[in-house]
Amino acid sequence: MKKYLLVFSVLFLFSTINAQTLYINEFIASNDTSYYDVTTDDYPDWIEIYNAGIEAVDIGGMYITDDLSELTAWQIPTTAPDSTTIPAGGFLVLMADKKPEAGVLHVNLKLGSGGEQIGLTLSDGLTIVDSLTYLDQTTDISEGRNPDGSDTWENFTTPTPGRSNSLIPTLFINEFLASNDNIDVDGTGTFPDWIEIYNAGVEAVDIGGMYITDDLAELTAWQIPTSAPDTTTIQPGGFLVLIANKTPELGVLHINLKLSGGGEQIGLSLSDGLTIVDSLTYLDQTTDVSFGRHPDGSDSWGSFLNPTPGYTNNNAVDVEENSDITATEYKLRQNYPNPFNPSTVINFSIPKSGLVTLKVFNVLGQEIAELVNDVKSAGNYEVSFDASHLTTGMYIYKIQSGNYSATKKMLLIK
Q: For the chain, N or C: smaller number of CB within 10 Å?
């Protein structure tokens, strides 16, 4: 008898330890267009579970709820372990559409966009694995942990169900020229249209396999080849110029697109063909005058009488600033430069007036500086941060305005 009790205890402890590596990682409580479920031909609410452990975990038999006073609201079926098992480091999306007849991942719950609770409980119906209480949600904007499994939550204008919340690299369509008569950027003696991509992050990013388009209704217009990573990789703080001349046979950076001088769109998407990294819609362009972000990666755009393909826009001269571009969404930008010493600049956008706080923390979560604590009108803002008094290391900056909050990391190197 003691032997069986010991075996049972070990198995229960093992399953509990595994279960404790599960996190409610992202959810959406008001879905109109962001995630389509082919099974039900609908746009359901959803809850993403992340397995941060080193062992696969089957959540079949566990309970999911939208009310923490009723932990056993819905038991996930045990009949399809192939569907309900989350591999180590993997993600599983539960459809909160009250249509359990559609499959084991469709739960008999529906999330409230006005604020509610979510809880995941072990099969004993008592032990809470993870839970949260959320406030008002915005349609098609998810809320999730970033990095995955952390205690830091932010809103995602581009939700990532079933994928890492840290997947989207800090790449920007930074400058482009759509009517070129005199600027030879590829050494061929021709004058092609071009698109410059800027990496504002702290890690190199290979854009091979990503898609570039001149029509946001067709995100997969052209896939950048994966055959030359040395050429398609952008170093931190670096730039890469794509030649939009419809001659892909000339090399991996020559894309099968051509920009219109009369106005068009540009979009860069991940290799899934769904997740937009950056996009823009532009109007009439002037020959030999480029259009770009000033400074790099910011929300401020201007016309460059002396284009800077492959180089920073920060030092450009003869820039005609465009003040007509307004903020249409909450956005916290990656600081630049990054890494930095001793100062850096942080840009953010707010679509409506309200109290804004912008604070800097160390990796222990201790507040280092308060950069903004004021009521701001809708618009785009730029704030400088002087870290001359700090030591080398990683720091975190966080913005809060209304229900919106977001965090990003920056690296100080002295």
A: N
Q: pLDDT tens across 164-209, in order?
A: 876 667 899 999 999 998 877 777 778 999 999 999 877 788 999 9
Q: Distance (Å, rounded) from C-alpha 90 to C-alpha 207?
A: 23
**pTM exceeds 0.90, yes or no:** no
Q: Which residues does 177 contact at the CB level (< 8 Å), separation at least 6?
A: 183, 193, 194, 259, 285, 288, 289, 290, 291, 307, 309
What is the DSSP secondary-structure string of 115-142? -EEEEEE-TTSS-EEEEEEE----TT-E
Cα angle at 188 between 183 and 190, to 5 degrees?
45
Q: Phi then psi for 28, rounded to 5 degrees? A: -135, 130
Who's near 402: CB < 8 A, 6+ residues apart? 352, 354, 355
Q: Which two tokens stand for residue 222?
A: 């052209």
Is 181 exposed, middle or buried, given 0-12, 13-18 or 19+ CB atoms closer than 10 A? Answer: exposed
**Structure-block tokens of residue 413:** 């190197």
